[in-house]
Amino acid sequence: NKSDHFILQEALVAMFKWYQGSAMMIVFLRGVRSSSQGGALVSSIWNTRAWTLQEYVASKVIHFYTEDWTLYLDLQLRNHKQSPEVILEMEQATGVASRKLIALRPGLSNIREKLRLASTRQTTLVEDTAYSLLGIFSVTGLPAIYGAGEGALGRLLALVLTGSGDVSILAW
Fold first, then answer.
1. Please, what is the average pLDDT of the chain?
2. Is the pTM of this model over 0.85?
């Protein structure tokens, strides 16, 4: 219910916490075939959507599956986030160095990297650019108001700036 801003904001933050508390995140790579070679993750639609960034940051364990439900690259690892192939592809897809990708955690650390990642992602509604980052920055108190347009991102950046004191984030 997008008309109740408080409930909506709680649900958006809770979504990140659900991912964070999950035993494993299963990612379905639509359009990626089991016969795909390395590099298919780079160009997958999963790597373009804003809401999937929180799946990657929040989840401790991820398994990537192709469109026919086989493990991506036949990776038989407990956690695909620790796969050198996946880490390299995520670096290529995001433009963020692998060591920084590995270090991403919720909260007000690595703000510029998180904003850089978010800037490469797409949303259906402009406000979702901001709302998909609530859990990533551990931000509470930002009402989710659909119809606010780009103002939602401005309000989020103001909260992040106030909480971190890092003015360099304005140059992302």
1. 87
2. no
